[in-house]
Amino acid sequence: MARLRYELTFKGTASDTLAAAFGDCEVERQRGVTILRATVSDSTGLEGLISRVGALGLELLDAHLVAEPAEGDEVWEAGP
What is the pTM of this model? Predict the structure, then answer.
């Protein structure tokens, strides 16, 4: 099973404590927004990540696939 890499952007700059709630993601803070980069195995995983953003009271601005995958592209990772 292939795994997909997504970026989610939410409004505000995450504190260290808030960033820790996304320990399974890369967290980048810039210009009043926070960008999460995460690898998920399916739509349920993506929905769970989006739900976590909402449950923390954060305003989701964008969610998208990082890049169109190509053979051997690091966007795709071999699943179990």
Answer: 0.78
